UniProtKB/TrEMBL annotation:
Pfam family, one: SurA_N_3
SUPFAM superfamilies named in the record: Triger factor/SurA peptide-binding domain-like
Organism: Aerophobetes bacterium
UniProt keyword Signal, yes or no: yes
Domain of life assignment: Bacteria
Database matches in Gene3D superfamilies: Porin chaperone SurA, peptide-binding domain
Listed name of the protein: SurA N-terminal domain-containing protein
Length: 246
């Protein structure tokens, strides 16, 4: 593979694995300003511009203000999660960071990898820090999901009720709830082989899948409530005009 193609491929790997984007900005063109303060930690204009560029690449936005608001909300939530990870004493070792770095780098030579970093205006230490932040967030959320296991109970009546709704949907009920449609998208393969005339699939065949789906949905709601609680307890200050950062 030619070096140019390799660099392009690695750029995509960087973006998809770490959700980062680099927007080269000359210091003379943009004075870095404080956009928000989250529990004493600042978010700057440069950081916000990078986040906006990332979202813009994944989604089409005509409304620049809406894009800015979404990007800022995402960054605030990230800061809150990282602060909570620190409070929970969750850590990521340098060896773990190096392992992820090695997996991303793959068979690339040090020279090509360094060229990639320079192309993205990113130092190796900055890249490692981004890996660490991602691992911290993932580890915190995984811990919270484990803690929720004992809190989430799925009753037989819930499974039966969901199954009856699923049967109606398979028979052509267009008023099915979105979660029924979502279940069908996830477990499409498990629903194959049903009687197309009756739209039937036995409860015994898919009850484990239904229970797993309902459990995951409840945990998602608990996770959302937990995040909303963290958000409500945080001290967040939005700088409407922006302040120059030192």
């Amino acid at each position: 593979m030619r070096k140019g193609k390799m660099l392009k491929l690695l750029t995509l790997i960087f973006f998809f694995l770490l959700n980062i984007t680099i927007v080269p900005v000359e210091p003379a063109q943009l004075i870095d300003r404080i956009i928000a303060v989250v529990n004493g930690e600042i978010i700057t204009q440069r950081q916000l511009v990078r986040e906006m560029s990332l979202i813009r690449r994944d989604w089409e936005f005509q409304d620049e203000k809406k894009l800015r608001d979404i990007a800022l909300e995402r960054m605030i939530n990230e800061y809150i999660l990282l602060q909570e990870a620190k409070r929970e004493k969750i850590t990521v070792s340098s060896q773990e960071v190096e392992k992820v770095l090695s997996d991303i780098k793959g068979d690339l030579s040090d020279e090509v990898f360094q060229e990639m970093l320079e192309k993205e205006d990113l130092s190796l230490e900055e890249f490692k820090e981004r890996i660490k932040r991602r691992l911290l967030r993932e580890r915190l959320i995984a811990q919270k999901l484990r803690e929720m296991d004992d809190k989430v109970k799925i009753e037989k009546e819930e499974i039966r009720d969901f199954y009856l709704k699923l049967k109606r949907y398979l028979k052509g009920d267009e008023k099915a709830q979105e979660e029924i449609k979502r279940f069908c998208r996830i477990y499409r393969e498990n629903l194959k082989g049903t009687d197309e005339n009756e739209g039937e699939v036995s409860l015994e065949r898919i009850q484990d899948k239904i229970e797993s789906f309902l459990r995951r949905r409840k945990k998602e709601k608990l996770l959302q409530s937990w995040m909303e609680k963290l958000r409500s307890q945080a001290e967040i200050e939005i700088k409407t005009g922006g302040e120059e950062s030192g």
